[in-house]
User: Fold DUF2325 domain-containing protein from Candidatus Copromonas faecavium.
Amino acid sequence: MSVVIIGGHDRMVRQYKEICQHHKCKAKVFTQMRTGLDKQIGSPDLLILFTSTVSHKMIRCVLDEVDESRTNIVRCHTSSGSALAEILERHSA
Assistant:
């Protein structure tokens, strides 16, 4: 399963990827707005938005690019590793 994580903390990127690998998911993590972000998203199976650490502009950019009929979108206010693990357990079953 492919996962895109939007938001979170810069220092947690490696841990986010390790948690995703543990759940047998391939992950892309974007903690900050980059040039060409909309082109890098692709069509993931699961899009996770950590809403407390991401700008409204970045959320709009990502949601405009994602096909909502093919991608599950999860919004989570906390950006902890345990919150990510819980989301992945719920959606990878």
